[in-house]
Predict the 3D structure of the following.
Amino acid sequence: MNAAPAIAPLTLLFASIFTSNILLANFLGMCSFIAISKDMNSSNGLGMAVTVVLVITAAINWLVLHYILVPLGLEFLQYIVFIMVIAAAVQILEMVIDRVSQSLYMTLGIFLPLITVNCAVLGVVLFMQIRNYTFVQALTFGLGSGLGWWLAIMLLAAMRRKIDKAPVPAGLQGPGITMITIGMMAMAFIGFSGMLKVQ
Amino acid sequence: MDLAFFIAPLAVSGISAALAAVISISDKILNNYGDVEININKGKKSVTVKGGAPLLMTLSEQGIFIPSACGGRGSCGACKVKVDSDIGPHLPTETPYLTKAELAQNMHLACQVKLKAGIDIDIPESLFNVRQYEGLVEKIVDVTHDIKEVLIKLPEGASVSFTSGQYGQIEVPSYDKIKEPTQRAYSMSSAAGKKGYLEFLVRLVPGGIVTSYVHQYLKEGQTMRVIAPFGEFMVRDTDATMVCVAGGSGMAPFKSIFQDRIDRGVMDERDIWYFFGARTKKDLFYLDWLEELQSSYKRFHFVAALSEPQPEDEWSGETGLITDVLGKYLTETMPKGDVREGYLCGSPGMLDACMNVMRKFGMTDDKIFFDKFA
Amino acid sequence: MKMSPEYVKAQANMQAGVITSDGFLGDDHRNITDIIEQDEELMTSVGLDWDEVVSRMRHLMKEGRKGLGEPVTVEGKWIVQVSEARGFLASPFEDGIYRKVNAEVQLAAEGKPTGDRLYFSELSLHLLEKHHFLQGHGSPFRLEPVVIRKVLDY
């Protein structure tokens, strides 16, 4: 196995939020990004939920990968096992949200269980595996990716609030202008590229 | 054979089992709300219950019944309660049924409030009198082609103390395509003094869940759950002339009111004018009884009006819309100068139209009463 | 096509026995989004404007209610009979509750009702207006665009 990249966890944290934003640089996690960014409160709630899921699953999957799959020579099972852990984590998160804030639970609706198939989550876990991060690196990468996703969805939600009141041409209203906006945000974030390394 | 064939499935099963265990434990911890205290009417009554269920169900298990026309499914808006403690923002399932004023007063739908912690609520005093009864259907009588009179015998020793004019909720079980029991509200047509029994008039509404069951499936000898009494429609204790208007099954509360006055011997104490509107003669019922009341009690007057009398009806009574007949009597026939109270029971359209007529001829809104559960 | 959660909920509420005894879907087993899409095409092909249709139907119901259950002749062209029952019906889209007011509209020929009848309620009007939902084939309150066009005399 290759060695872990020599990147300080703190650097990795900022890198995954800005330079390699999971949403705007890697384009992972788009469906709920576009759907929920209509409303700022639910964007906030979903961003928080995705961050929590990312941290937990990065941690657990790292442990499962290095202490169960690798020693037993079962790396080929990683896709199945990673998804199972993600699904379980999201289930538990759903129960927690229902308990703590029922209105958030109802507002997020189906997008809460959809976090399970949010490609950003599986993407982060697989990046962690491919890049051979250490445990601490995996944790900070997960946290950073989550914060980056949260940041991106809050930015888009804020912009959509403004766009709603702007005179958008009929053909571009809704998905059209949203996609264009996301593209421009992505281009803006390219300005960060090269500053910090993730691998 | 490669050992991986055995280890791989074992590993996956082991991991899934571990995850399932974690989920199970979390479920027990997170969804167990423990015991919560419901404080009603600032300490007048307080119950400690297991949390987690909706307020409406929990209260009914404790014997406190909030009116509900849909059995807690969140589709009627009847179960409004005032919540005095902070239970968070209104849910999207509640807001369609609450006016701005109600939202500001922190009214919630009891069927949508999940009991997670102690809660303080404020409910009308009259609701403490409401009980649930497992009654027995003793008699079903066809009074017209689309109205059935259902007599329910209450369990031994049970009785409902209600005021004539109030209504009860009857529940029908799941049947045909209807997968769950359904409750609907009906005015009680039996007099308040008739102990041990409750009677209802049920009119068949095409496509109606409860009325279809009552007309097509209900048999004498079946049990039927009744929750009563509810409502604020009742006779005000004054000397004013009572102007009563009903259509179809709207007769029910008046049957109860008049019989009650007869039983208490006060039928002669006020002028009562009872207007009953229908389409043709076959839609009229209790004619003999009402005509007998008219001849026995000087101050009771019964006016039936048919809007579409058929030739075979040989109708010699009033014809036309009930509102027109009402207007005629208010101005020409009834004695002038007396104070009049209006009592209305019927469909929303009929209520609006009659209220307009009453207002036009000098009756004031504060003296016109009708059943609001419609 | 996958439906959004609001439509999934609405479809579940439209089943027989949930809100009304017969439900809103009749014998139609398609997704409501497909039903709505097809009906939107039908309405355009028949040349009808949704808002126009709703406002005319609403006007007919309003005039019909004055009859208190009796048939009423409106503008000399239509015979409308409106029946009411007490209580409320919830919209399957969970966006409001509506009185149980049913209107039956037919064209008048020499004072008598003739031809197809248009049968709608306050709730079905709301579904038509806000959701472009004409109900599934076989539902007692199904509104066929061709029939709408004929009866409303366009």
